[in-house]
Amino acid sequence: MKTTRTALALIGLALILPASPSVYADPPPWAPAHGWRKKHDPYYTGYSGKRWDDDYGIVEGTCDRDKIGAVLGGVVGGAIGSTVGKGDGRTVAIIIGSVLGAVVGHQIGEQMDKADRACIGHALELASDRNSVVWDNPNSGLSYRVTPVRGLDIDGRKCREYDLAIRGDGVNEKRREKACQVSEGTWKPM
């Protein structure tokens, strides 16, 4: 009888042990895996320390131009992009466009619209180093890739070095640039 109990216990143990590793492979309920932040934490803390209510796809490596365009719809001028939607949380970081036009060349700078500038600014704000953010502008036919390289402190200001690549419609530009935060949500190329 004792032998039967021991045999049954060993068989039961043999059936339980192979299942154990899969149980331990799942994340514990207090530390969920992939996607938790997007589902449960409505804020994204930017490079400058500001909390943003939407990443517009930046964290995943794309910029949702349509969504950003809707937020920027009533904005006049690139430099005030971060003030859009006061009180309702609809904000987006932006890079000041007039200087950026000089950085990437006059023709390309004129083809960039407010959404492109917002994608660059929000990428500087939320993308981590060495993680690219891409998007296409269907109006200009240009494709963009912004890759923050590293953070810098220049004269006490928060700055980032980044690679900017623009391609399409006879354009193939790639440059390494620096931009510094000039106010909350507003970046200016150096």
Automatic annotation (TrEMBL):
GO terms for cellular component: outer membrane. Residues 68-109 form the Glycine zipper 2TM domain. The keyword Signal applies. The keyword Transport does not apply. Coiled coil: none annotated. Keywords: Signal. It comes from the Bacteria. InterPro entries: Gly_zipper_2TM_dom (IPR008816). Residues 1-25 form the signal peptide. This is Type I secretion protein ATPase. It comes from Novimethylophilus kurashikiensis.
